[in-house]
From TrEMBL:
It comes from the Bacteria. Keywords: Transferase. SUPFAM superfamilies: Acyl-CoA N-acyltransferases (Nat). The lineage of its organism: Bacteria, Bacillati, Bacillota, Bacilli, Bacillales. InterPro entries: Acyl_CoA_acyltransferase. GO terms for molecular function: transferase activity. This is GNAT family N-acetyltransferase.
Amino acid sequence: MSELHLKQISEEQIEALLRLQEIVFMNLKQKDQLSTLTKEEFKRILTGEGYMVGVFCKEQLIAARALLKPRSEESEHLGLDAGLTKDQLNQVVYQEISLVHPEFRGNRLQQRMGNWLMQNLVNEGSSYSFICATVAPTNLASLIDKFKQGLEVVALKEKYGGKLRFVFLKDLNNPSNFTVLEEKEVELTALEEQRHLLQKGYRGSELKNEDGRYRIRYQLRSKNESGFNML
């Protein structure tokens, strides 16, 4: 759609962000798929603790996506869920909230915004080594997005006040020179089986669609010298 364009969002557009978030939330059949942000949390991202890109149709904000620089002292830091050491937490950036107006779904806007944000990190010469994110097991669009960007499932646990989430991780520096010891494919809905595999050290590396049935490929891999599974 030629009338759509991407640009960085400024603090002056917080009210438009809040309106977009409300529209997206009210149109969700499963409300727990989205962990909404407060005005202060949006302000934190827009005033130096992250990056946010928006998609505009003419002058209307119709989609937004953010990266957040988490504080390393956070008690529920996703890096800890992903098995990183405390010394590595300051090298983590989060893929944060992603919003697309219901009337504009199907235009791959989430993917386009994700590519823009990642390129922005590269252009700024970022020192970040790890990307973390969370996704509800029922949020198929976001699961597809994360796997396409090379993130992998490293945990399944309750976050944000009891909401079940996959925790994703991507190592930006280490090449994929691991050895796969074992592979299993598990139905997306088989959450307890996936939790068990993750606790044993498996990583969810791929989402497969077989005639509308979604399965995640899990791999048990050799370990690198630092002691955690290479991703």
